[in-house]
Amino acid sequence: MIPLNPLLASSGQDALDTLSTLCQGSLICAQRLISLNLRVAQTLMAGNVAGTDALLRAPDMTTIYDTQSRLSHQLMQQAVGYAVDFNEVVAENQQELADLLKARTDSLTRALSGQGVEQSAASATLMAGVVRSMLDSATQARDSMLEVARQAERNLTKP
């Protein structure tokens, strides 16, 4: 006979620990994204004020054109920097989630295989592989977006 109480108690505590870690990681990620957004908003506002002031003080059309070109270049650099920082925060969070899922799956696999339930352990391992594949796809999408932003920046800076 399989003692059910120890298995349920252990599994329940693991689930609570996992949920607590997941919530804490999500809050930290949200806090970092909010901080990043505030910093970018402040930078953009300061840049807009300085840019408007520079355009108002421009004595001729050549200076206006040069100022607009410089402002556009700075804006593109800020956008690429924001994308890089944003994706770094998200990628770190995804990695933490993947590590958490792997640890939880390994724990569940050990608990179930010790009780002779290899099919459930295989299903948990398969699910972990699916989630990891989804995280890898998200990372590849992020890398593609960054490459597009870099190409756009190169095209804007060409004379």
Itemize the secondary structure elements and their pairings.
Blueprint: H1 4-57, H2 61-114, H3 118-157
Helix pairs in contact: 1-2, 2-3
Q: Can I get a quick summary?
A:
The chain has 159 residues and is mostly helical. It has helices spanning 4-57, 61-114, 118-157. The chain is built from three helices and no strands.
What does this structure look like?
By secondary structure, this protein is an all-alpha fold. It has one domain (17-157). Helix content is 93%, strand content 0%. The chain has 3 helices and no strands. The protein has helices at 4-57, 61-114, 118-157. The chain starts with a helix and ends with a helix.
General shape = elongated
The count of domains is 1
| Largest sheet descriptor | none
- Supply the number of helical segments: 3
Mean pLDDT: 74
Structural class assignment: mainly alpha
* Rg calc: 25 Å
| Approximate helicity band | over 70%
User: How do the helices and strands follow one another from N- to C-terminus?
Assistant: HHH
What ranges have pLDDT less than 50 throughout 5 or more consecutive residues?
none
Query: What is the end-to-end distance?
Result: 79 Å
Strand content: under 5%
Number of strands: 0
Characteristics:
elongated, 3 helices, 159 residues, mainly alpha
